[in-house]
Design a protein that fits this description.
By secondary structure, the protein is of the alpha/beta class. The protein is built from 13 helices and twelve strands. α7 links the parallel β7 and β8. The structure holds flavin mononucleotide (FMN).
Length: 331
């Protein structure tokens, strides 16, 4: 049987399937269900800086990033107040999760100011988080801001948190950079131990009756995994740090594809919300079955074996794939 044991940012995991940040990781009951179902690790929902104390956001009076940089106050989660609460409740959840679970507990932070990010990252480290995931969620709506300026802000954020904490640090980013590969390298240089690819930007809809914007949250579909696969495949050879796949992993086939493209771990939310926490066990069993059937001794052996570096025709991950798909549509 294939050995599924995996290391993620130095954390020893029994296998590579992790429950990503969601309401399921936001209560002790469902965290326990996820562990019982076989999750290798859990990422707690993000602690949103805006939900903590407003006064603390202006910690040193140098609010370099402004409110718009970080989780959108509108449009990401309609019922933020009911979902995550303040820092105290978050710390309570973290402490309880650390007490009750044996698997690694990764705390997630969604800040807006460099001071705030470092401040809360230190608090999460002090309360026992095994690692921190920074959820950098920025919609670049300021048309005066150049891509380079936006990127610099990301990098300064990561550097400031890196300076503040010693535990492993993952950075969850979206795919919308002109050169995602170059940005990934610079995030690595800024001190990230892993990149979580990709943050999913929730798209608001329009209500035609009320003529309003409706911040409707739509769960992912397996088709969304393809963007992640491409960048895993391209990046795995160029980065020394770990890669986590998030978005579109609904079953063991999706998990296997992400690993083959170079993911160190695969993360799941939508499928667990759709099918329940026990689904994670089904995915782990399916993954183990698939790898065993094909004779892989370990997950390490399979990892990256269908990446940009290893496939016969790497251009299939690039433009040639596009041309081929258009030309051959329907045939
Ligand atoms: C209801 C809900 C709540 C979420 N909360 C968070 C969060 O607090 N922090 C975060 O980084 N991501 C959050 N996410 C994003 C997920 O962790 C995950 O990255 C995203 O859903 C894509 O993965 P999936 O295709 O498996 O759903 C949330 C997603 C959903 C659907």
């Amino acid at each position: 049987m294939t050995d599924l044991s995996t290391s993620y940012m130095g954390l020893d995991l029994t296998h590579p399937v992790v429950a990503s940040a969601s309401p399921l990781t936001g209560s002790l009951d469902t965290l326990a269900e996820l562990e019982a179902a076989g999750a290798a690790a859990v990422v707690l929902p993000s602690l949103f800086e805006e939900q903590v104390e407003h006064s603390e956001m202006v910690l040193d009076g140098t609010l370099v990033l402004g409110h718009e940089f970080g989780e959108a106050t509108d449009g990401y989660f309609p019922a933020l107040d009911d979902y995550n609460t303040g820092a105290e409740e978050y710390i309570d959840l973290l402490v309880a999760a650390k007490r009750e679970l044996t698997i690694p507990v990764i705390a997630s932070l969604n800040g807006t100011s460099p001071g705030g990010w470092s401040h809360y990252a230190t608090a999460l480290q002090d309360e026992g988080a095994d690692a921190i995931e920074l959820n950098v969620y920025h919609v670049a709506a300021d048309v005066d801001l150049t891509g380079a300026e936006v990127e610099d802000r990301y990098l300064r954020l990561v550097e400031s948190v890196r300076e503040a904490v010693q535990i492993p640090l993952a950075v969850k980013v979206g795919p919308f950079f002109s050169s995602p590969g170059n940005m990934a390298r610079r995030l690595e240089a800024a001190g990230a131990d892993a990149l979580v690819l990709f943050n999913r930007f929730y798209q608001p809809d329009i209500d035609l009756d009320r003529l309003t914007v409706t911040p409707d949250l739509v769960l992912s579909t397996p088709a969304e995994l393809r963007l992640v696969l491409r960048w895993l495949a391209i990046l795995e050879a160029h980065l020394a740090i770990d890669l986590a796949a998030t978005t579109g992993i609904h079953d063991s086939a999706g998990a296997a594809k992400a690993l083959l493209c170079g993911a160190d771990v695969v993360m799941m939310t939508s499928a667990l919300l759709l099918y329940g926490p026990a689904h994670i066990g089904t995915v782990v069993d399916g993954l183990r079955g698939w790898l065993t059937e094909r004779g892989y001794a370990s997950v390490d052996q399979a990892r990256g074996s269908v990446s940009h570096r290893t496939v016969v025709d790497p251009s299939a991950f690039e433009r040639a794939n596009y041309m081929h798909a258009l030309v051959n549509y329907g045939s």
